[in-house]
Sequence to fold (350 residues):
Amino acid sequence: MVENVIIIGSGPAGWSAAIYAARAELKPLLFEGAITEENRLQGTLPLGQLALTTEVENYAGFPTGDLKQFLTTAIDSERAQYMNIHEGRHAVTGPELMELMRQQAYNFGTRIVTDDVVEIDLSKRPFVLRTLDGGTHQTHALIVATGARANYLGLPSESAFKNRGVSACAVCDGALPRFRNKPLIVVGGGDSAVEEATYLTKYASKVHMIHRRDKLRASMIMQERALGNPKIQIEWNHTLDEVLGNEKDGVTGVRLRSAVNNATRELPASGVFLAIGHTPNTDFLKGQLDLTEKGYIRWTKPFRTETSVEGVFAAGDVADDNYRQAITSAGTGCMAALDAERWLAAQGNH
Ligand code: NAP
Fold:
């Protein structure tokens, strides 16, 4: 059987593409990713980066409210029972928002497979995809919405304290009580690091930016913002050597190492935020689509989701290193489905 369209990815881009494709009666097949230890460790489990966050206050249409009844009536009880739906008023959480999108795509007839696509062949038509469990699938059109993952340094202590003080998203986690009025650490010297550090000054008593060089990579305006903020202290020429903490309190501090003389010193902190860039999830493409210099899938036309291979469309963070928001990903997911539908129609396949 040849599919009309296969969608790879289960973040806002993938689900939005699926909702539009399903409503266009394309009967999409969506691979949401496999539940494996490797995916857990690198943050690429089904439902994507949003599933790793807490409350989402900036997704239009979800003001804070008592969502329990809505969530338990909208989401199939089989899945809702495993969700940790808060009592009382709260903003929708990342996992809740993703379950809602998944449900909506399912309700319109999206077929969902809990597996990873590990290999594709774009040289043939229809395209051929192979999954982790060894299955093969053929499709006329393909939407790649595999997202990106935050980079971590790879320290064992860093993964040990993930979700207990170590985060790669200040906007997602910064307002948590554990970070309030306490010193915090941001690692990195780019625009993201400055943005995260500036954001965290709303909550923290002080933010130490740990940068491995003596010059920031961030743009001039962002540099001025960091240097001019009395709550931000830049620890030049230092790397993060170890995250310190214990079972009961989570993160309690960090050990830094000087890049100049290798000396170490410790700083107290209740949180460590990594801002050392993201990696788009494109490994399975093995060079078959044009990528940008930064490794993101290249959109070949302005305001379109076409890629370098006709019939392959890209949506969300895998093709966007600039906005990287849930709502912009959802928007490009919708665009990809519309672009795919039009392309299929032009081919006489729909
Ligand atoms: P980035 O520009 O690649 O910066 C990454 C930073 O992390 C660099 O300072 C780098 O140090 C440091 N780093 C990387 N690997 C490291 C490691 N293993 N150990 C220690 N430090 C490490 O990434 P980004 O800040 O996420 O920005 C990505 C893109 O988005 C950029 O084009 C940026 O302009 C854009 N962006 C814009 C805004 C804005 O304008 N508001 C906000 C966020 C992002 P080195 O400097 O030594 O390489």
In short: The chain is about 25% helix and 25% strand. The first strand starts at residue 2 and ends at 8. Residues 153, 188-193, 195, 212-213, 217, 239, 275-277, 321 surround NAP (CB under 6 Å).
